[in-house]
Amino acid sequence: MSAARRRSVGSSLVGTGTRQQQVNSVDERTRDAVRITGLIKTYPAARGRRGEPPAPPVRACDGVDLRVRPGEVFGLLGPNGAGKSTVVRQLTGLLRPDAGAVEVLGHDLVRHPERAARLLAYLGQESSALDELTVALAAETTGRLRGLGTAAARRERDAVLEELGLAKIAGRPLKKLSGGQRRLACVAAALVGRRPLLVLDEPTTGMDPVARRAVWAAVDRRRSEDGATVVLVTHNVIEAETVLDRVAVLDRGRVIACDTPGGLKSLVGDDVRLDLVWRDSPPLDVPRLAGLAERATVSGRRWTLRMTPEDAREAVSVVTTGPAFAALDDFSLATPSLEDVYLSLGGSGEGLVKL
Ligand SMILES: Nc1ncnc2c1ncn2[C@@H]1O[C@H](COP(=O)(O)OP(=O)(O)OP(=O)(O)O)[C@@H](O)[C@H]1O
Q: Name one GO molecular function term (predicted).
């Protein structure tokens, strides 16, 4: 129900006592596009095959609470194995939680998982189901399955393929495309037969920058023109910073922070990050450089330092003069990123992608 419609229903019932309370409680539930409360999921232990040790149970969701507002692009960020896909598979009704509630636009998807198909479009990590079809047929078939008539499905198919730059390869089967092209075709299929909630699990994996930009523009259009809400899984911190309104950081099945990218970054204060890349070995006989070496995280030829802006100014003057500068290949100074937030919150940082 749109906000305008909710307002008109509410105002027509002003003063009717109990019915007003009912409307208020419906209003309360539908104010969030997605409400996830106390979600718990443990994958059971598995017997070891051919003499291998058994796999222990894995608690992939450990009490996850999330609220997503209508029209928001909301991200789940975290390293491999943090539990992001497990959350979205429960959000889409594909996986039953052990405990907790999942509501989408006021519908209880734990009790009624079959309603998910009408409420949301889901792009999972693996999408081999469409592999035998051509790009055009994958999009058209998805539209038909979502209840569009033949003409409407074809109209939407053509519009989406054009929008995502796929018209030229519309006649090719998905299984004969590159990884990035196949992923783009799956995004196209997900967008046909519009749904109020889009749940996209790493939609741009393997795509080149042109395709990525086309996907983000298409997602943004669904939000601005249709009022769609988007839940997006990513472990790409750069994407997270640029496309998301709010982001929940997941680590080991728990939400360790949830805010706007800017709000999260303010958690790490004013510290800046200085990256130094040396041509070969740095001249450690320069005394002030030896001092920096003690504070740096070293990875091959790269030093990374987190410091106050004043210390960074001093460090930059050290590395841009004399023998240090001669030995320097590259350097960059950056304000805090979501990766810094993640690390400062106690995440391991492994598996976060920076492109
Ligand atoms: N079907 C399954 N059976 C057993 N364990 C599983 C299963 N699926 C996922 N897991 C485990 O649950 C945890 C969370 O996995 P999940 O796929 O939700 O993480 P993720 O954050 O989506 O990771 P990625 O970024 O790699 O996609 C991991 O430890 C994973 O190994």
A: ATP binding
